[in-house]
Amino acid sequence: ASWELLRPVNLVITALTVWVGGIIAGGVEVMLNGTLLCAAFAAALVAAGGNAINDAYDEDVDQLNRPDRPIPSGRLDYVSAFKLGGGISIFGIIISYLLKPGLGIIALCVALLLWVYSVSLKRTILLGNFAVGICGGLAFIFGALAVDNPAGGMYPALFAFLIHIGREIVKDIEDVSGDRLCGAMTLPVVAGGQHAQRVAAFMLMMLATAVFIPYWTGDFSRNYFYIMLTAVDLPLMLIILFLLIGVEQRGLKRVSAALKLIMIAGLVALYIG
Q1: Phi, psi (deg, nearest 5) at residue 76
Q2: Which of 39, 51, 227, 257 could form a disulfide with 269 if both were Cys (CB 3.0 to 4.6 A apart)?
């Protein structure tokens, strides 16, 4: 139950994001750089802690939206989740600071932002979505800073920011029934699911355009362009079309899963490019 609480697939994506961010900023020669690898591990720890704390605060909402999760299903109590999340987060922050003070500061800021997100931001219009987007973007900056070139992570940080916001809005639409009953004021609750789908589509349209900027500026290769076009932009355009037409409630989970796969494809493109 504890392992499920931490969401291992998301942790792997977080670690890979930091690692790829470091390679983009420092070149393939830093692929096995000890500081970068440890930074990826530390970032995964902070993310794991945030996931556990988020589930602890979401006990009432998950009773309605995700009753099979460890806490609402009774396999783990929320006090244990708090302790686990807090302990793992602190461990990740300490490791980050020991690697570089700057990494420690970012890790601390992300951990605090994830905590505020769990307490209040996630139940507000767009603020929670933007908080997750910021954390997703900072993962690339984190990796780039580990190899002493934080500016090198700016482009992918922008891409991560946009796709995380779009995906989080989709997840909010999935959870709209439970969120409404619990008094959350998310975008779908306040403006309706159809309007929220259009906002998500707009964020993804911005992403679909932005991913080509590094190619147009000559910072990334033609291989990057081809992979982004086929594995990222074409699937994104289909998702955008579906969202503009209107996806039924049961199809939103597939959209969310598809966006996660697109994140992985984007990491491959960034790595190869």
Answers
A1: -150, 140
A2: 227
Which residues lie below 8 Å from residue 7, measured CB to CB, with a gap of 6+?
A: 48, 51
Helices (H), the chain: 2-6, 8-26, 34-57, 59-65, 78-99, 101-119, 127-146, 154-174, 176-181, 187-191, 193-210, 213-216, 222-227, 234-245, 249-272
Of the candidates 134, 128, 138, the residue with the CA atom closest to the CA atom of residue 175: 128
Q: Are 144 and 19 in contact (CB under 8 A)?
A: no
Task: For Cα atoms 41, 153, 216, give the angle at the middle one, nearest 5 degrees.
Answer: 140
- Say if residues 180 and 189 touch (Cβ distance below 8 Å): yes
pTM summary value:
0.89
DSSP string covering 97-121: HHH-HHHHHHHHHHHHHHHHHHHTG
CATH architecture classification, 2-272: Orthogonal Bundle (1.10)
Sequence ranges of the domains in the chain: 2-272
Cβ atoms < 10 Å from Cβ of 8: 13
pLDDT in tens, the chain (273 residues): 577 778 888 899 999 999 999 999 999 899 999 999 999 999 999 999 998 888 878 777 767 667 777 777 767 777 888 888 899 999 999 999 999 999 999 999 999 999 999 888 988 999 999 999 999 999 999 999 999 999 999 999 999 999 999 999 999 999 888 778 878 899 999 999 999 999 999 999 999 999 999 999 988 889 999 999 999 999 999 999 999 999 888 899 999 999 999 999 998 898 887
Beta carbons of 187 and 126 less than 8 angstroms apart: yes
Q: Are 232 and 262 in contact (CB under 8 A)?
A: yes
